[in-house]
Amino acid sequence: MLTAALGEEKAGGLIDRILLGGSTSGLDSLKWMEPRAVADVIRYEHPQIQAIVVAYLDPDQAGEVLSHFDTRFAWTSSCACPRSTPCSRPRSRN
Questions:
Q1: Tens-digit pLDDT profile for residues 79-91
Q2: What single-letter DSSP state applies at residue 1?
Q3: Distance CA 82, CA 93 (A)
Q4: CB-CB contact of 55 with 30 (8 Å)
């Protein structure tokens, strides 16, 4: 029944957590959070940190997390290009 509700991978992970009695920590805890909550947690982090977190999540959850970001935010966040290299990202029209 658990597998039908959560899918095989998540159900297996939940059973392992229960049987081992361990609590998750760090990035693992994000996998059990609602996508909206994950988006809220990483919203003001550096874009590279956001990318690491999203890459760590399951693809479906990652897509839902990204859907909670304003598309303008990605384009207007700070550019990590070195000063000697022209930035290739589109400029904001604000």
A1: 555 555 555 555 5
A2: -
A3: 22
A4: no
Q: What is the pLDDT of residue 68?
A: 92
What's the CA gap between 44 and 35, in Å, rounded? Answer: 15
Query: Residue ranges per domain, the chain?
Result: 24-77
Residues of the chain predicted below pLDDT 50: 75-77, 94
| Residues in CB range of 4: below 8 A, 6 or more apart | none
Q: How many helices (H) and strands (E) does the chain have?
A: 7, 0
Please tell me the pTM assigned to this model.
0.55
Q: Which of 53, 25, 34 is nearest to 17 (CA)?
A: 25
CA geometry: angle at 89 spanning 46 and 39, to 5°?
A: 35
Token pair in block for residue 47: 């874009």
Report the alpha-carbon distance of residue 65 to residue 59 in Å, rounded.
Answer: 10
CA proximity to 63, closest of 40, 35, 43: 35
